[in-house]
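thread: overnight batch results

M.L. [08:02]
morning all. the overnight job finished for the chain we discussed friday. pasting input first so we're all looking at the same thing
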Amino acid sequence: MPDTMRESMGRVVSELIESDPETALVLADIGTANFRDVLKRFPERSVNLGIMEQTMVSVAAGFAMEGFHPFVHSIAPFVVERPFEQIKDDFCYQGLGGTFISIGASYDYGTDGMTHQSPGDVSIMKTLPGMQVCVPGTPDEFETLLRHTYRNGAPTYIRTSTQENDAGRPVSFGKLHVEREGSDSVVVAVGPMLDRTLAAVEGLDVTVLYATTVAPFDGETLRRAVAEASPNVVLVEPYYEGGLVPDIAKAIRAVPSRIAAIGVPRRILQKYGPPERHDRALGLTPVGIRARVTNFFKAG
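M.L. [08:03]
and the structure it wrote out:
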């Protein structure tokens, strides 16, 4: 069986810990099964702190100040929202590099309610100056993005999920991948939304760009696509809708344009269930996305 994104994380991070003595691993009781061997073999630079997420980030910053590159992992609400102040002050304010890897967003743990949901994680991390944000759609894309950003001196947030595309693309950090070209409009699909977006726009003459790096955003490729197709841009995101709208608007500010954002609506999700059930309820299926896209085109 191919790796899941989380299995890929365990494998790749373990390889880096073993091969590079200037790496460290800090956990807060989540994901320990992926790192049993690492925790036993490298106790001087791999530690499970228990359920203390703020301490997890501050200890990771301590490793970074001593010249290590720390990997920090937990469920998205526990690695982004709960220790956000420590990420801001201990990493960004001090200019430290590290990799924060999440699982579970937006609602992979939808059966556990809001405490385990985090559709706002990307928007939150994008507020931090210098924070790199990656949203891979497959395990191999996760590995590519991790290795591209690893030890580049900046703090990086990599969002993994149980929902994946069927096949990876030749992605590069900081670049949009041109999936297909058209002449009517431009559609930007983020991470695991690519497959369902392609199904939604089947038969439509649109350019589809694939984003696995959310910050920094590749405005140059978008501008080129808009110049060759249309200033109508549809954005399909797996987190709170509109997260990339400011970046898109800035990239094409010289061109009169229309932008539509499709993603998780900014409201409390009251229902429980697996991610597929939430997707159906929120219209984030190929049928629901196509309806939003065609309505946007008709309104123009």
